[in-house]
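A quick aside before the break. I want you to see a complete sequence-to-structure record at least once, exactly as it would be stored in a machine-readable document. Don't worry about memorizing anything.
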Amino acid sequence: MSDFDEILFKDEPPEPTRSPGHPTAIPDDPWKILIVDDEADVHSVTTYMIKGIDFLGRGFAFFHAYSGREAREIMSEHQDMAVILLDVVMETEDSGLRLVHYIREELNNHTVRIVLRTGQPGKAPAAKVIVEYDINDYKEKTELTLDKMLVTVISALRSYHFISTLENNRKGLKKIISASSDIFERQSLQQLGSGVLQQLTSILQLRDDSICQFTSGLTVSRIEGQQLVLAGTGAFGQYVDRPFAEVETQLIQTALDQAQSRQHGFFCEGGKCAWYFKSQTGSENFLYFEIAKELDENDRDLLELFFTNVSLAYDNLFLHQGIEDTQKEIIFHIAETMECRSAETGSHVRRVAEYARLLALKYGLSEEEAEMLKLASTPHDLGKIGIPDSILNKPGPLTPEEYQIIKTHVYRGHDLLINSPSPIIKAAANIILQHHERWDGQGYPQGLQGENIHIYGRIIGVADVFDALSNRRVYHEAWTWDEVFAHFREERGRHFDPKLVDILLENQEEFKAIWSRYNAVGVQFT
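That is the input. The structure line, written in tokens, reads:
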């Protein structure tokens, strides 16, 4: 009589209760159990004894290997195996022990629970195996009645579930840290909204079976009194930069209302989830997303932690934007004050800023950098605050001595701003210092040449001269467009960066449109 014949004929208690209504049903995400034994009867008996049992609402999926080699192939493909019922003696006397070493050391899988079953305990003494190998249980085949088999498997599954939960939480916390680092680096509401959706996708796909697969979502913020979609994925991708009212449905609104009424601002039922956050500055922000299955308690805990960090990121961004807006307002008022002091007419500061932004974008600078340059350009004549009115507003040519005094305005303005910690103000200081340099090295104050002049200085040099020529000044009448563009053709590669001149000439209508928008004199050019 074989070892497993004895199992079949032992006195056994009544069969345990199976899943009601589905005696052999296997859920979508069953526990994976690998039976490794070279005897076919062992596989069939083991499967018969525990099939149809549920643990935590999940059934069993059985995998069968009849040698250590077959088991290796299965384990290399199924890293999420929950339990291995492993024989020791198969093709060799230590096949099972070699498999344990392969799983733990080469696959680095320390989560799967390994139950060693042997019909020849003398080949693998329990004390030696337990001490030297990372196994989780040791059973002699003859002692495994139905009750003992169920206790062994369920205990192993309970241990696997606990370890897997800890590992998933560890991965989740690691992703939260990574996600938080990413979102805190976002410098605009659009970037932040997009980043939150990207990181949310990563967080919800922690598991190998994608049980919480992310399908679609959107982020919304109230900007200047209007709720706008900042970012969207899946079905909501088409609504980016559009009013929330265009995508709003009763289902979404109900989820958002529920989130708004919750203590932590988070609601999720039926795969429809929403998060609501009101910043310290009063801005309201919404996140809505849909997932394939319900979130469990661990998922909810991770998401609440993530949303706490997202709230901080929104607050930081709004506070940062408030500081930047204040800086912009101060810089612009300083620039306008200088413009009012001069006898020149028109919105010189505004026009130069818009010309600079357009040149920057056409040159290939990013939208963010072009916006910074637009702002930093406004105080480019700040140093003229120390120039006497008799020189600044002189209608005729300047004497050599007066010209030397005028040239000092670049140092005056630079020195006023250079010690500021603000990147924008530092950029403005360098623009003041370099916007009168020339491509050929004949400019002032340092005589810099070519690309040794910062691109900001080169751009403002073109924008400033373009505006000076196309508008009336105390020392000359406004030039016609033909005269203006002819001058830039002539000075290409001499006074001005050739690439910037080419951009100006190739986009004349766009620059003329800016002139028309901000020109206060109303002169019409030919």
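Two observations worth writing down. The domain at 342-518 is CATH 1.10.3210.10 (Hypothetical protein af1432). The chain has 19 helices and ten strands. We'll return to this after the break.
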